[in-house]
Q: What sequence folds into this?
């Protein structure tokens, strides 16, 4: 008789008419008869439990299995022992659950993957569509295992260089902070470190459209060798009308035809009249150190130079030849002050 009682209590649970005592009784009976636990799992999945969804079962198999447990496997030849409205409720839930599972299997949710690159490192990877991406130090990329639908979308934190595989029917979208860069097939760099004041997009070849989340009517089209610089802090003409500060600049070619914005791909550092504060941040990422500038006035000094295989100490010594400062090394910490 206990099997009939289990079915009765499960039916009440389905119909949301079970009392707390009956739910407690159901838990006790299922504990004493673990062979019936699977039936409760089926019930939970059909009620939409987030903890148990049988995604691998075909829709018809879910329906058949549910009724098999209700009428066959539990040796109850007549399901009519259940109250009629419970049977109706159970049937509706079974059919709805089967249809829902079938729909889920037709439109699977794409699993997202992420790659994190620490300071002092770089990484290159190829996505499922053939797009190649170089990640700079201190960066993160979030992307789907495979691209489906009408567009390809990824998210970048930090800095990345993209060589996008052409696919006109499926545009490539890169989300970086409050910017979205739309491309069809091109190569460009995007930089959005949390500690930086600006988000930059530098186009090397092709064409990109940059959309600003809080200023959608002001999309910017970049041509090759152009760079978009967007301030992270909005200014405002009026309190209810934020005005995004942005500027399109030409990309300058430095010493030995090096482009500062993409030199990191080849493990180089290129400074073109950069502030010492910006130089310090780049040194932190490349050499995995912490740089403290003790003199505020030194932060606004401007420096230039190209560095390839130099050690951190060599870089600092070369910079010191044109900018007056001293430094000391304390493990992974560099303290710099003006002399």
A:
């Amino acid at each position: 008789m206990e099997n009939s009682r289990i079915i009765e209590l499960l039916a009440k649970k389905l119909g949301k008419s079970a009392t707390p005592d009956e739910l407690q009784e159901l838990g006790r009976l299922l504990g004493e008869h673990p062979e019936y636990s699977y039936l409760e799992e089926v019930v939970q999945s059909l009620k939409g439990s987030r903890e148990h969804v049988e995604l691998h079962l075909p829709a018809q198999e879910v329906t058949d299995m549910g009724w098999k447990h209700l009428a066959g496997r539990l040796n109850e030849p007549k399901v009519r022992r259940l109250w009629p409205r419970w049977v109706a409720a159970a049937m509706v839930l079974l059919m709805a659950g089967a249809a829902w599972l079938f729909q889920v299997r037709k439109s699977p949710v794409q699993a997202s993957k992420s790659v994190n690159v620490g300071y002092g490192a770089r990484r290159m990877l190829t996505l499922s569509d053939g797009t190649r991406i170089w990640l700079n130090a201190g960066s993160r990329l979030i992307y789907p295992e495979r691209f489906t639908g009408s567009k390809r979308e990824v998210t970048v934190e930090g800095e990345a260089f993209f060589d996008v595989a052409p696919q006109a029917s499926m545009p490539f979208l890169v989300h970086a902070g409050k910017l979205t860069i739309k491309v069809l097939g091109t190569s460009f760099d995007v930089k959005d470190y949390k500690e930086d004041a600006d988000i930059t997009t530098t186009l090397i070849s092709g064409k990109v459209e940059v959309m600003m989340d809080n200023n959608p009517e002001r999309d910017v089209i970049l041509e090759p060798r152009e760079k978009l610089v967007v301030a992270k802090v909005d200014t405002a003409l009026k309190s209810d009308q934020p005005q995004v500060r942005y500027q399109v600049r030409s990309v300058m070619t430095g010493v030995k035809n090096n482009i500062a914005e993409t030199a990191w791909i080849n493990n180089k550092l290129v400074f073109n009249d950069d502030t010492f504060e910006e130089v310090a941040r780049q040194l932190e990422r490349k050499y995995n150190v912490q740089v403290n500038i003790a003199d505020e006035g030194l932060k606004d000094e401007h420096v230039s130079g190209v560095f390839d295989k130099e050690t951190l100490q060599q870089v600092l010594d070369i910079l010191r030849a044109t900018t007056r400062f001293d430094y000391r090394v304390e493990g992974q910490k560099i303290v710099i002050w003006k002399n």
About this structure: Helices lie at 2-14, 20-32, 37-46, 59-73, 84-106, 276-287, 296-299, 312-320.
